[in-house]
Each structure stands twice: as structure tokens, then as C-alpha cells.
Design a protein that fits this description.
Order of helices and strands: EHHEHEHEHEEEHEEEHHHHEHEEH
Strand order of the largest sheet: 2-10-9-8-5-3-4
CATH superfamily of the largest domain: Type I PLP-dependent aspartate aminotransferase-like (Major domain)
Helix content: 40-55%
Number of strands: 13
Largest sheet: 7 strands, mixed
CATH topology of the largest domain: Aspartate Aminotransferase, domain 2
Number of helices: 12
Shape: globular
């Protein structure tokens, strides 16, 4: 099967095999060595010297951890959203009692920096800004460096970043851009199964933690910090995925982080060009197009579910559909991790063969 959704991604065979390593004592010296080694490796990918913790949980839990460890009920926060996962970030903060100002942008667009600046000028009581770096529901990457320069450089607010589908695929300079909290998860560019989440935490974030009053237990990063000093996790970890992470980091280091980013960019460009060559349209403005997932518009008159079903049943290619307001209007091709040109050619060939069956003639074919 050619699994081409925006996560979970296909896991290489050698990494899957490593998960069969026998269990070890997560309170013992072997795991201590493993924990310190992989944490240092993850920090390199985050480009940070900040504290970083590995949670046995999903990416959404790391988003929740970012909020509950830095905020109190009633705190005024600004949530920047360009899609489904940006909306989710704000919803979590609202559920825990934050006063959320929502700055939403049309799906398929990116955060407007001037609009961000205007809101922060108009509402000086805002203490924290939350943003999703890469929005997989629309195939858009925000200019996080520009966002951070306004949030940190001009207004000195706390900055919480959902980097779930960007870290390890798209450049994110945690320290250089002064991102206070960055969250990501294993099933994206890390070449791993779902089950681990990673979260970096700056000194400024720890200052916020000292006064944060939102309830937390499993996600209280103070527990992770305390146990990390002993070389342990506070709670039972997904040990098998730790083994896989250890190998994945070795492979990332051998390839080089810059080479990793360049490879993702090449595959993304190949995908976008292939979509346009078929006569299809990209959903977002191409200047904001993501290097981890390509979103294409469903042609007029084509039923999205029929197209995805035929591609899956006839060609064993699994693509992502649209979410929320773009359900039935777009499809998405994930290309994180070790996606090869052959993988993408398989997707494009499947689309070329399937589109005529749903009433669309691809470009370059006979009418």
C-alpha cells in the first residue's frame, strides 16, 4: 500500500524491526542512557538548547501541555488559525478557561503579519500567542520566523507553536526565533509510528509555568523535569517507540538536517508540479504551499469520495480527503519522512488513471 495521508506516515522496515527489541526497565541504567541520547538528538532537530521532554501520547496532548503548563484560567491569549489544527489549538485553550481572541484567516491562506500586529497593538492585555506552523488540513506553511519576529521582537509575548507536521520536515529554528514552546509528534517527519510527542520549553516558559493555574497531572512538565534529572520518565513510556526513535535519529544525523529539509522541498515541488501537469489546481496559493502535504482542489463535477475510493481500490494508493469547510472540495497528498520520487510517481499515475473514471480528463490525454 502507498499510504499518502498527512500522518501517520509509512514507517521504514528497519525502524519497524527495531521495535521488536526486548523490553527493558524504564527505571534502570539502560533506559537512562537511551533517554538522554534520544533527547539530545531530538534537541538537535528542534535546533534548541531549551529543555525538551518526550511524552508517551499524541501530538494533540503536546498542544494541550503547551497550554496548561503556561496559562491560567482567564489569561488573554491570541490564537492564529488558518485551518483545522489552528482551530483545535484555540479550542483547547478555551476549554481550560483562557480568554481567547481568535484571529482566523481563510482556509488556504497564511497568517497576515500586519493583521497580527494590529491585534497585538489593539489588545495589550494579551499575554500569549498560539500558532500552527504547518497546517496539514489546507497544505499551508505559515512564515513562523516573521510571526515570531512580531510576537517576540515587537511585543514580547509568550509564543506557543504547534510544530507537529513541521519539525523534522521544514526548518524551524526554535532558539533563533525565540519560540517558547514547540510541540510535535512521532508519526510525521520522524519516520515513526504514532505514540510519542516532543515538547521544548524555554526559560520564559518555565517562568510562566511558575504561576500557571490550569489543572494538569499527566502533562505537568515539572514532573518530566524532575524525573529527567534521574534519567527516567515520570510515567510508563512507549519503550518500543523509543527504540525506533533511537534508530531514526541516527539516520537523520547521517543524512544531515539541511539535507533532510532539502529532500522534503524537492519531493514537495515534484508533487505540486505533477498535480498541475494533470490539469488540477493547487488549493493554497503556491507561495504558502507546504513541503509536507500537498492540497489539490477537486475539479468541478467530481465527487471527492468517488475519486479517493477508486485511487485506493484500483491502485492501492491512500490519499487524504478534506476536513471541515473543505470536506469534499480538496484531497491531500502527504510526503513526509522517507517519501521517494517513486512513491509520488505512483500517486500521480493513480490519479491519471482514476480521474477519467469520475468525469475529468487529465491534461495531456486524449479528449
Amino acid at each position: 500500500m502507498n499510504l499518502r495521508i498527512p500522518g501517520p506516515i509509512p514507517v521504514p522496515e528497519d525502524i519497524l524491526a527495531t521495535m521488536a527489541t526486548p523490553m527493558m526497565n524504564h527505571r534502570g541504567p539502560q533506559f537512562k542512557d537511551l533517554l538522554y541520547r534520544v533527547t539530545d538528538g531530538v534537541k538537535q532537530v528542534f535546533d534548541t538548547k531549551n529543555d525538551l521532554y518526550i511524552l508517551t501520547s499524541s501530538g494533540t496532548s503536546a498542544m494541550e501541555a503547551a497550554i496548561v503548563n503556561t496559562l491560567s484560567p482567564g489569561d488573554k491569549v491570541l490564537n492564529l488559525s488558518i485551518g483545522s489544527f489552528g482551530d483545535r489549538f484555540g479550542q483547547i485553550a478555551e476549554i481550560y478557561g483562557a480568554t481567547v481572541t481568535k484571529l482566523n484567516f481563510p482556509w488556504g491562506s497564511a497568517v497576515d503579519i500586519d493583521a497580527l500586529r494590529d491585534v497585538l497593538k489593539a489588545e495589550p492585555g494579551i499575554v500569549t500567542v498560539m500558532v500552527t506552523h504547518n497546517e496539514t488540513s489546507t497544505g499551508v506553511t505559515n512564515d513562523l520566523e516573521a510571526i515570531a519576529s512580531v510576537v517576540k521582537g515587537e511585543f514580547d509575548k509568550l509564543l506557543l507553536v504547534d510544530g507537529i507536521s513541521s519539525v523534522c520536515s521544514i526548518p524551524l529554528q526554535t532558539d533563533a526565533w525565540e519560540c517558547d514552546v514547540v510541540a510535535t509528534a512521532s508519526q510525521k517527519g520522524w519516520m515513526l509510528p504514532p505514540g510519542l510527542a516532543f515538547i521544548s520549553f524555554s526559560e520564559r516558559a518555565w517562568e510562566a509555568h511558575a504561576s500557571a493555574k490550569m489543572p494538569k497531572f499527566y502533562l505537568d512538565l515539572a514532573q518530566y523535569r524532575s524525573y529527567y534529572e534521574k534519567g527516567q520518565p515520570p510515567y510508563t513510556p512507549a519503550i518500543s517507540i523509543f527504540f525506533a526513535l533511537d534508530l531514526a535519529i541516527q539516520q537523520l544525523q547521517e543524512e544531515g538536517i539541511d539535507a533532510l529539509f532539502a529532500r522534503h522541498a524537492r519531493i514537495a515541488q515534484m508533487t505540486r508540479e505533477g498535480i498541475k501537469d494533470l490539469g488540477l489546481s493547487l488549493f493554497p496559493d503556491e507561495q504558502y504551499a507546504s513541503d509536507t502535504v500537498t492540497a489539490a482542489s477537486i475539479p468541478e463535477g467530481v465527487v471527492a469520495s468517488d475519486l479517493l475510493r477508486i485511487v485506493r481500490e484500483d491502485h492501492d494508493v491512500v490519499l487524504g480527503g478534506g476536513q471541515g469547510p473543505v470536506d469534499g472540495k480538496i484531497f491531500r497528498i502527504g510526503h513526509m519522512g522517507k517519501t521517494t520520487p517513486e512513491d509520488i510517481r505512483g500517486v500521480l499515475d493513480a490519479l491519471a488513471a482514476s480521474l477519467p473514471k469520475v468525469g475529468f480528463t487529465p491534461a495531456g490525454t486524449a479528449h
